[in-house]
What does this fold into?
Amino acid sequence: MILKTFKLGGVHPPENKLSSGVAIETLPLPARIFVPVSQHLGTPAKIVVSRGDEVKTGQLLATSAGFISANIHSPATGKVFKIDEVPDQSGYKRTAVFIDTKEDIWADGIDTSPDIVREIKLSKEEIIQRIADTGVVGLGGATFPTHVKMMVPDGKHAELLIINGVECEPYLTSDHRLMLEHGEEMLIGTSILMKALGVKKAMIGIEANKPDAIDHLTGLAGQFEGITIHALKVKYPQGGEKQLIKALTGREVPSGKLPIETGCVVDNVGTAFAVYEAVQKNKPLIERIVTVTGNAALKPSNFMVRIGTPVQHLIDHAGGMPANLGKLIGGGPMMGKALVSPEAPIVKGSSGILLISDSTAKRVPLKNCIRCSRCVSACPMGLEPYLLQQLVEHEMWAEAESNRIMDCIECGSCQFICPSGRPLLDFIRLGKSTVGKIIRTRKN
Ligand code: SF4
Ligand code: SF4
It folds into this structure.
């Protein structure tokens, strides 16, 4: 069978899925958690609790503060110790609610039983409201508020829901384990999202290196009208929205536009599961699956972990900090960012923690660009990464914009393939930030 994939660019980094066979383990709560009020794309949420307040698990801590924003709920029962700044995984200080935890007591109205609820009773409007109330955001990494994604703009039409089960980043296995262990709930979540969008069809894309998940979901999908499972050829970055749409439908999202231009809406499998929990159980998004792995990890693991838990707590339960640790990364090795401190909390967008050994953490020695054009061939967006890097280095912002720097999806394929060790993505990220500001200023 010929497996579908996207055509333009892409690379094949070693998969290293060390934890794919490790079942999800629920982590105990640490004594103190740190819950940032900005865990989503858009405006930070507005805090509605005060120092000294007693809170229950699932209680609202901060309320959505704009059209693109999301509610934040308490991931634990306990006392608000203080409201202060905490460094996030990149080292930036974020306002957070510090909670000293006690034994779990859930807020009223949340169904915590393990029973699967299959019948979808809520209307389209009620579903979208529930998703907003429970603070569900995209768990594939973008953290865009899901209820906003469900509101298709005037003049656009959604006809197909795509569920992203690709998990193409090396090492990460949280989505893989979710599909195996919570496949039915994820499929119910997919049906809920279809109802919210008013679409009759959903395609779930999974790379062929997860045959057990493909078989499991294919077996279950027969009970769900309109949902089909699709095995895809293994190629990075197939989990990019634009690449996945192309692989599954052949449609191209135009430069600078959103997937809805092609009639598609894309959500991650983790988001579909969170939507199931929100709509069928009234459970806010207060926990997620996080992979702790890497070539220095002592016990590669998949944890169900409460938001706000310090990264160190996960590492302690994954065998501890290795003596040969060279680098800690939040996310996968291709798109993830160096983690400044293990005291940073897990947030809604945290998919993995990578422990890389000191011997592999070293970058290859930086050499001059040899104009080999490998970065151009690898770019899934048809960009010229070597040129963008030079334009950013020389602060040529207008030229960087006209060479479509904003189309870069920050997949890191160019940097991975470069034989000269050029820090292409580092420069391009910097350039996107500056060019983005220039574009926003021009619009205002
Ligand atoms: S891959 Fe590296 S060396 Fe080759 S053209 Fe791109 S930047 Fe230059
Ligand atoms: S330029 Fe951007 S989109 Fe293209 S390969 Fe590099 S990181 Fe990926």
